[in-house]
Amino acid sequence: MSTLDSVEKYVTYRGLPPLAGLTSMARAVQCKWSVEQSTERLKRMHYVLKRLHETFTARITSEPIYELKTAFSHHAYLCAEYTTAIRKRVGEMRVPPLGLDQVPNDSLELLMDEIIASPTTEELVAGVYEVAVPSILEAASRLEQDAHPLADAPTVRLAKLMQFEFKEVAVFGSQAVACLVNSEQRLAMQTWLDLLRLCLSAAGAVDGALEVNCATAPAPHHSLKPYQYQGEPKRDERFHDSYNAGVNPEAFLYDERFSARDKTLMMYYKRIREIDVPEMMASILHDLRDDEPWEFHMEMSRQLWDEARHAMMGEVGFVSLGMDWSTIPINFTWSRNLNLQLDARERHGVLFFIEQGLMPRTGKRYEWEVGCESGDGLSGMFQDFDWADEVLHAQIGRRWYVPRYKSLQEALVYGDRCWTKVVSQWLGYRDQGLTDHSNWWPRLYREACIRWNVLPDPLALSFNTSYEDSRADLKKID
């Protein structure tokens, strides 16, 4: 009896779907697949995803456009998640050593070198979202179709999940390109985009599953000058007076004289200002890319994405009040000073010290209580999840930062000392004419009171405490 006859005659109990619903029996009897084929494709996809994660992360700080900073934070996290999932799957298929840190193909290496070296935002988004992301989706789709749905079911599941999430990335990307790249710019970059597609053709696609249709390997263009990380944060034109440290929101938040309603307005500012955390954390991940295991980068990428979400919570908060956040000076000197004055280990120390300071009752729990008391349900919800995220971040720090020291206390002392090393340059920025550290709070508060249909509290209206002689944790600066 032939295989076809056997399949046609096979009957499950009372006609139930066969094979746990994974596939048909006709597909299951096909045997053109192997562990080697599966792992080779996964390794190549792993390489491109890991490099794309590095690209998104490295470009957060120097990318001026806020919406791209947050999107890059999210998309870097997704790349990290699937890089991790592929590493796990390859490790399950008797392939020691895994070889996941090797470059699988020179043309793929050139592709990713070219994209990270893109000199403009327009070229970056076009290269990432018109070439790299679609090529990953295509590879995942082929893997779903070609892998044996029963024997290699974990890989098929991974390919399906990757497509589900990266389709959303692709939709965002196509919209971003349409918004940012005009016809003149596209014409100017077309030769370069053709080079990127030639790289894929020379590699047989991301997964190596297609025929190689390129006689010679492509020559580098932007990557002739290797990419150099830029630690100076950049902001788009909606951000103004970014050196302004004339308002200390923590001093307002912890002052018992002020109402929870008024404090939640200041907390929305604190949240959107957190875009400086991804700007700083990106520098840690970039500088330590070869000095820490992948698991470090995975967990820190989750934290970086959380901090970008927190900034967007502040954005949503202001929108919910009908207020234009771009009228507020959103300070960036914390990320700027840390990036330019400290090394990566010192920056990580400051980050950990701040995280631990948020754990006591006077930290994130207090902010949640204020949000709940304020009568602003959005603030209460945001602070609820912000608190949960920060507990996770403190745990990440204890896993990856504290073990470098003899004790938790020593780790905390080091972080505090590193933060103390940072010169705030409050007077210097003023004397250079970069800002006058104006007190923007009264105008913002008056506008909010109009929205709330209440009279301003005279005491809150007169708040005028700056960062001149204190840090965000209210510790005095010498």
Helix content: 55-70%
Radius of gyration: 26 Å
The class by helix and strand makeup works out as mainly alpha
Strand content: under 5%
Report the span from N to C terminus: 89 Å
Shape: globular
Beta strand count: 0
What is the tally of helical segments? 20
Description:
- The chain is mostly helical.
- It has three domains: 1-30, no CATH class; 34-215, Ferritin; 249-461.
- Helices cover 63% and strands 0% of the residues.
- The protein contains 20 helices and no strands.
Q: Brief overview, please?
A:
Helix 5 runs antiparallel to helix 6.
Please describe the topology of this protein.
Blueprint: H1 3-9, H2 25-28, H3 35-60, H4 66-91, H5 106-116, H6 121-146, H7 153-180, H8 183-203, H9 249-253, H10 260-273, H11 276-287, H12 294-320, H13 333-341, H14 344-357, H15 361-373, H16 377-400, H17 408-421, H18 426-431, H19 441-452, H20 458-461
Helix pairs in contact: 3-4, 3-5, 3-6, 3-11, 4-7, 4-12, 5-6, 5-8, 6-7, 6-8, 10-12, 10-15, 11-12, 11-13, 11-14, 12-16, 14-16, 14-17, 15-16
